[in-house]
Structures are given as C-alpha cells and as structure tokens.
Amino acid sequence: KSDSDTYTCDIGDAQSRAKLVVQERPVLFKKELQNEEAKEGKQVKLTCELSKPDTPVKWMKGDTVLYASEKYEFKQHGTVAELIIRDVKSIDA
C-alpha cells in the first residue's frame, strides 16, 4: 500500500507520469480460535493464525475489549496471535 503514489519518467525535455494504486489483500484467518478448557487457577492460551504478518489484533471477551494486564498477555509472532489468560476463574468462561 505504501507504494501507492505518482511515478514519473523524466528524460530532460519531457516527462511521463502514471499513478499507481495498490489494493491491499484482505486479512483472513488461516487458523481460527479453538475452544479450550482449563482448570481454575491455571493459565490458558488462545491462538489464531492470520494470512498477513504483524496485522493489528484486537482481543475481546464478549463485547468488551481486553487490554494487557496481569490477567491478560498478548503476543504476536508474524502471522500468529496469542492471548494468554492467567489464573482463570469461572467468570472467564
């Protein structure tokens, strides 16, 4: 996308210009989240894989956006995004 711009070929007395518009490929899930079970007090890791590396991910529980804290940790390595939930309780289901 960052290559979108106007390009010029200059030969001194004349110029030719063209506009390049790059259409980004949509980000898709290569591997979706899977259901997990965990014992109370333990930690659980939820993982998904995306079609495009380093795509920003927003983690949610129901309609609530999650933020990094002692409870929640987010990791992202290339196309793999992970949510680690520590000290799970029944309310985390």
Automatic annotation (TrEMBL):
It holds the Pfam family I-set. InterPro entries: Ig-like_dom, Ig-like_dom_sf, Ig-like_fold, Ig_I-set, Obscurin/Obscurin-like_Reg. SUPFAM superfamilies: Immunoglobulin. It comes from the Eukaryota. Keywords: Cytoplasm, Disulfide bond, Phosphoprotein. It is found in: Cytoplasm. Residues 26-93 form the Ig-like domain. One of its GO terms (cellular component) is cytoplasm. This is OBSCN protein. It comes from Urocolius indicus. The lineage of its organism: Eukaryota, Metazoa, Chordata, Craniata, Vertebrata. The gene is Obscn_4.
